[in-house]
């Protein structure tokens, strides 16, 4: 009895410490989880607000058009260059493997599938994430920090509609258009390379390109780029609109817009690919 | 020293706040604020940085929600209004932000047009032009019409910010630190402008500041925010005629700096 009681305090003490320790660790983890779920809640509320407000007037048409210009037209130089070079390089790098089997005649079909299905939408989205999402994040972030968003609100203009809805719409419309354009420019790059090496004519090249792809490919790419466009606009707006105060908030908003948008684009690409593959055998 | 505006109507309260409390997480900023603003009056709210002055006027304009208490503006309980009703009320309130909050991507003219296009749809372009010219002239910046905000000085930006709020003929003006970051001469000009707005546009105003020169120049009445509550109120002299160390410190600090 005595020995037991003699031991007991020590045991109790250590077990006490242990639970205390795990409790505080659990507390930290649960706090962190809380924050993640809180943030997720905010994100969903933000997206829900977009779908609630997009249907009702005032439609800020002029701002949508401005943003379409900003997002679409202003991205053309960079997109053109990147798309074109990727077309050439990809074709050039694919040739040796096909040449091993004496199958360089299949080059147009290979390029076509790769570019239409995957590279066109993905490259466009990644470039737009770098240019558009960061641009929106920085712009709205600085408007938040300098109280321009508050100023809009107190002058009885809905800043969410004017700033967020217009940008998300413009990005959702323009990224698919840009994707189509990138795809075309990439194919053109591919054609130049094929023409130079295999002397394929333009007509034959594009005949083979369209031979290789199906309706499902084009439909899937379009749907995918719409989703990418929506993601890019949404991420930029969410980060900017909710940017923290202070000048460093603006930089953070721009930076995390790019990182988050790119991350989501890859995840979406993976998921959509699964769905499309399932549809192919359906 | 300002002459008290003879047109103040002490029977009409345009803003009436009782028992207002506001906290962020566990941090209590406003701990029971009572305030009334009479028609035609310039009320100065003094207080150190971080005492919740901006929070107070953001609650008045519905940008933040109060935790407790009544906030009555022009007969309406601000926190109980629907978004539509709140927007209607906001058109009667002009808010001049600390950093002017001009829209960077628009010219001065587009900044001034922005509220007009949305809320006075019946106006023709000619009418709008006339009104824009009128408010620009009222703030003494007729030549800035086609400039970008980034090309203006701090004082000029303040004026354009005030012009942008005047354009919808508000009944109440809220000024958040109108002289902060300005040199003394420009500050004096802005003070004059605030008084001129009061006279010419018949507004009732709350001016938030920690600049005693400004408080002296524009205030019909002064209240002091200390520890989340209004501790002193009266004319400028009355507020500082006290043994309260915190109030004295505020006075001395201001005139040493
Ligand atoms: N939106 C907000 N979220 C959290 N804290 C805030 C917010 N707005 C203000 N605060 C805090 O409230 C306090 C008072 O702020 P403010 O009213 O801006 O002070 P000032 O009197 O200098 O204008 C500050 O400590 C600030 O950190
Ligand atoms: Mg402030």
Question: Please, could you describe this protein's structure?
Answer:
The complex is a heterodimer of chains A (282) and B (257). With 282 residues, chain A is an all-alpha fold. Chain A has one domain (58-281). In chain A, 88% of the residues lie in helices and 0% in strands. In chain A, helix 4 (107-145) packs across helix 7 (202-212) and helix 4 packs parallel to helix 8. The longest helix of chain A is centred in the N-terminal third of the chain and has 52 residues, at 2-53. Chain A is globular and about 65 Å long. The model of chain A is unreliable at 1-15 (pLDDT under 50). Chain B has 2 domains: 9-92 and 170-256, P-loop containing nucleotide triphosphate hydrolases (Rossmann fold), CATH 3.40.50; 103-164, no CATH class. In chain B, the strands form 2 sheets. Chain B has a 6-stranded mixed β-sheet with strand order 6-7-8-3-9-10, sandwiched between helices. Chain B has 257 residues and is of the alpha/beta class. Helices cover 38% and strands 27% of the residues of chain B. The chains are: A mainly alpha (282), B alpha/beta (257). The complex binds adenosine-5'-diphosphate and magnesium ion. Magnesium ion is lined by residues 53-54, 98, 176-177 of chain B.
